[in-house]
């Protein structure tokens, strides 16, 4: 991937994250009461804060994405293809179990219901994204896409889950999932264009 292609992906992901944060902010504002605005200036500043926050989340997402690419490169270099796929399935399953069960039963950190809903939501988004990735590429993209969307996303939100505030979790998970989905869905286009040129 050339620097030009990477910078284009970087700025597009930045925009996607900003839009995802605005959507998350509007959802929280409409359904949870959100922030109580004291003046018109607060109403005008709020969207720009959301855009900036979304840009920060997108950078965080991109760090996770490039960490995943490095891990995947090393995994395919060390293990056979089929073995690496099994390892990814096991790691994604363990990440889901950690999110849904271990934090509640072992750590006593959170309620089972909210973690279960979050785990199911992440898994459903991962399956939908993997479906579109397979349609764009080939059937071998199922496991890596689900692994990235499940395991890497859960690793990225661990810090926010430690806070234990549902609004904070919603506020980060929406732009993060949108950024992760965008990056994994456009990766083959970026690398194909690079190979053609």
From TrEMBL:
Keywords assigned: Membrane, Transmembrane, Transmembrane helix
Keyword match Transmembrane: yes
Name assigned to this protein: KinB signaling pathway activation protein
Pfam families, per the entry: KbaA
Keyword Endoplasmic reticulum carried by entry: no
Species of origin: Paenibacillus campinasensis
Any single biological process term in GO: positive regulation of sporulation resulting in formation of a cellular spore
Membrane spanning residue stretches: 9-31, 43-71, 83-104, 116-134, 141-163, 169-187
Classification via SMART domains: KbaA
């Amino acid at each position: 991937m050339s620097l030009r292609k990477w910078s284009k992906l970087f700025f597009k992901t930045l925009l996607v994250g900003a839009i995802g944060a605005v959507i998350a902010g509007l959802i929280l504002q409409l359904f949870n009461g959100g922030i109580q605005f004291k003046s018109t200036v607060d109403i005008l500043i709020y969207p720009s804060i959301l855009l900036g926050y979304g840009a920060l989340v997108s950078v965080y997402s991109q760090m996770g994405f490039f960490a995943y690419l490095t891990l995947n490169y090393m995994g395919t270099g060390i293990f056979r293809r089929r073995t690496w796929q099994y390892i990814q399935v096991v790691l994604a399953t363990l990440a889901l179990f950690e999110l849904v069960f271990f934090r509640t039963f072992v750590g006593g950190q959170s309620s089972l219901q909210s973690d279960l809903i979050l785990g199911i939501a992440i898994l459903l988004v991962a399956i939908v994204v993997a479906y579109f990735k397979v349609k764009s590429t080939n059937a071998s993209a199922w496991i890596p896409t689900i692994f990235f969307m499940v395991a890497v996303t859960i690793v990225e939100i661990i810090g926010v889950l430690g806070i234990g505030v549902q609004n904070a979790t919603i506020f980060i998970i929406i732009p993060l999932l949108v950024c992760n989905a965008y990056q994994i869905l456009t990766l083959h286009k970026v690398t194909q264009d690079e190979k053609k040129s």
